[in-house]
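Tokens in:
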């Protein structure tokens, strides 16, 4: 399954929607995970446009005003939706995929900035994985956290103690989740401050051994 994760930082503009549509077509995407849509409602016409056809299903979490918002769209052909599960900061789907009817869980994640919200999100993700039946798991999205110091540059010295605590907690979460953090190819970071003063690797694909 080809999965694309993209923090769009607002999906209202026609240019950005067209770029997403082109990405889906060019990469033959089977599952699209968008974060920070900044949309309170999602229409079928929007999903069909982004996907390039009506051969799709979707689920979403609305934004809170002009903040957040998660949208997951997947290829309907050969992917039977078994159920959807959601929580603050994530939308998950369980699919029966392909001729072999393999059970696949794909969780679209968008974490808030404060550590308390991240901890609640991490706890809910671990409980979700432990609570459902076995299958292949993929957690994709913007986790807004790092667990190695080299994954973030340009952070003020004042924030170093808080960052160290967050890194330790995030690493514990990854161990509890029992998944693999897939390495980046080509670049070392996924986010940068507009003036280039700080950069981070906060977007990830976490996958199970299956």
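Residues out:
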């Amino acid at each position: 399954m080809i999965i694309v994760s993209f923090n769009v930082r607002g999906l209202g503009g026609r240019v950005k929607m067209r770029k997403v549509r082109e990405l889906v077509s060019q990469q033959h995407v089977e599952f699209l995970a968008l974060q920070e849509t900044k949309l309170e409602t999602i229409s079928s016409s929007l999903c069909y446009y982004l996907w390039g056809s009506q051969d799709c299903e979707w689920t979403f979490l609305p934004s809170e005003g002009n903040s957040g918002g998660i949208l997951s769209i997947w290829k309907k052909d050969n992917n039977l939706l078994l159920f959807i599960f959601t929580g603050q900061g994530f939308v998950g789907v369980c699919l029966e995929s392909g001729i072999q009817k393999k059970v696949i869980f794909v969780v679209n994640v968008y974490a808030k900035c404060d550590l308390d919200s991240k901890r609640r999100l991490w706890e809910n993700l671990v409980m979700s994985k432990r609570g459902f039946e076995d299958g292949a798991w993929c957690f994709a999205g913007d986790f807004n956290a790092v667990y190695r110091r080299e994954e973030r540059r340009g952070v003020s010295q004042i924030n170093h103690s808080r960052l160290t605590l967050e890194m330790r907690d995030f690493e514990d979460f990854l161990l509890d989740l029992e998944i693999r953090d897939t390495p980046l190819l080509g670049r070392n970071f996924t986010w940068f401050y507009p003036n280039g003063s700080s950069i981070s690797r906060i977007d990830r694909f976490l996958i199970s051994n299956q």
